[in-house]
Amino acid sequence: MAWNTRATRTVYENRWIHVREDEVTGPHGDGIYGVVRMQHPAVFVIALDEADRVCLIELDRYTTGRSVEVPAGGSDGEDPLVAAQRELLEETGVTASDWESLGRMNALNGIADAPEHVFLARGLTMADATTSQREEGIDAVRWVPFADALRLIADGEITDGETIAALAFAGIRLRRFR
């Protein structure tokens, strides 16, 4: 049985998200479904340097506390590649000469309409983003070997779902899974 939306109403909206409540009929009958729609797709960047190290950032998230993540952010209506390039520079002070799209994914697809794009960035050059990092709330930028990033997932230090998925995309592309 397909889902049927009988009615919908906006509950909340700002420049980043739109929250609606839908009256639906689905496989288990009638119900109410809350849906969060991101106003623009998000981007995630796996920045890999010549020493095979991945760039990670550390910050404090209001919702979950301390978090170790790959550079990421909203596209603000830009082309996803342009947004990825901007986010990498703002959050880490790094630019890249070689960009590759690794794929597309959906965040929290049980409650959200939140498309995301993952990119691999190589040919890295250090610029300066000290001011941007402070504005973004970034406490530290770390460079760890790719294999160590996977260990950080296994050890529970990286818990951000999108970072885990982005690293999986990169691991598949780079043939790093054994």
Automatic annotation (TrEMBL):
One of its GO terms (cellular component) is cytosol. The keyword Protein transport does not apply. It holds the Pfam family NUDIX. GO terms for molecular function: hydrolase activity. SUPFAM superfamilies: Nudix. The keyword Hydrolase applies. Keywords: Hydrolase. Its cofactor is Mg(2+). This is 8-oxo-dGTP pyrophosphatase MutT (NUDIX family).
